[in-house]
Amino acid sequence: MVIQEGMSIQRKLEILSDAAKFDVACTSSGVDRKGNGSGIGNSLACGICHTFSADGRCISLLKILFTNECIFDCKYCINRSSNDVVRASFTPREVCELTMEFYRRNYIEGLFLSSGIMVSPNHTMELIFDALRMLRDEYHFNGYIHCKAIPGTDPVLVEAIGWYTDRMSVNLELPTASSLKRLAPHKSRKNILKPMRQIQLRRESNNEYLGIYDGRRHVSNQITMTNDKSSEITNDNRNSDRDLLLRVNNTTNIVPYNKAPIGKSRYVPAGQSTQMIIGATDESDYHIMSVSETLYDNFDLKRVFYSAFVNVNDDSNLPSTVSGPPLLREHRLYQADWLLRFYGFKIAELLNEKNPNFNVLLDPKCDWALRHLDEFPVEVNKADYYTLLRVPGIGVNSARRITTARKSAILDFKDLKAMGIVLKRAVYFITCNGRMMYPIKLDEDFITRELLAVKDRLPFGIEKDITYKQLSLFDDVSFQPDDRLMLQEISHA
Ligand code: SF4
Q1: pLDDT at residue 17 above 90?
Q2: Minimum mean pLDDT among 3-7, 38-42, 357-361: which range?
Q3: Which atom of ligand 1 is found nearest the CA of 78?
Q4: How confident is the model over 351-391, as pLDDT tens digits?
Q5: H/E run at residue 295
Q6: Which of 95, 230, 344, 419 is most buried, most CB within 10 Å of its CB?
Q7: Quick check: CB of 68 below 6 Å from ligand 1?
Q8: Domain edges within the chain
Q9: Which residue's alpha carbon is at the smallest distance from atom 2 of ligand 1?
Q10: Quick check: CB of 72 below 6 Å from ligand 1?
């Protein structure tokens, strides 16, 4: 184990928070836990690292790598073993002290912990496990924790860590096994899917045991992920894990299956997520979204994150990104992802082999609607919820408001406007009481021109042509000189 003795905690923090910035899979949504009176902190149901929650609050997680040392050589990664970069590693205690100190100063509401691979996946994950166990059991930290699982980690460690985190994620990295082989030769699809399947099945059995239904369909325990028997997680090999489980760490209090360790009850309560790099390889949007759909349907993932490829290495296997990372493409994928998760769309409705990429000028729902004008206009006073959701300009909240409000009144366009429906988009696709707002011809060219004139609300970074930048803790104006002293104290603790 190589943990730098001489490096200050502040320097480590600078290196390891900067090294974590390319990991985008860090939302804290999905778990709502009040402070329990005995621990410190609470976790809130919605919020995204370094961005705004659905209720308008900016919430943040301490987002760090445990180490940026790595024995792997993924071609797209700044921390790959062949790069000559300054390396640093935290100790488990340093991770705890930093989390607690930043939490007490109100800088963070939780921890997002990822890592390079030091010595081996198991070695690194054991250190991470020690950090999380101390944080929960010794420091009584009750805030949100999102932890990455390193592919190739022993299932016993994945099992143990899951009791101490709210969310876990295993990065898929690239959409296909062949791309993975080319750009991340030390990783395999099997090693990535195996812990994903393990976490899924374990969550299901834990939820079943506790009588919790988390809103997604439960997948049979018999499900297998490939025809390759070695990557299946069956009841048999899960049972054989049990002995190992008892040996994993004599401080864990791990007990056999279907019972939680003492003091723990939920296994990965906020579910799991994953991340794919977009634009490093030549898969189409159709291919990428088909993979996402499979992950949602068969692995019960809460989120798939898309990370526009940023070229940080001078490697001939990587595409040049002279015009910047493909942020607009990333944005379209997120919009389509939303349609899959909340709007009842299937990817085959949006794209196909002949039309494999999203329209850069129009969002995926407008694009779909224009290709299906025969399904419009929709009568807002009669259409069911899912039909309303397919109308451009009507989102989940608006569709709910419409279905509620029309129980007591017949709606007209003024009511829709008051409900926040984006009429400049919806107006081409709806009627109120059998009438359109204006006499409009349902003509694809005409509506396309009109919709193009409505400005697409793009994320700030795309609008302003700003490439990815994550705030550093040291950029924060509220970071006081005293805080630097605090870091020195942790260093000497
Ligand atoms: S495993 Fe690959 S992606 Fe992860 S830190 Fe190492 S080189 Fe980077």
Answers
A1: no
A2: 38-42
A3: 8
A4: 999 999 999 999 999 999 999 999 999 999 999 999 999 99
A5: helix 285-299
A6: 95
A7: no
A8: 9-313+326-334, 362-463
A9: 74
A10: yes
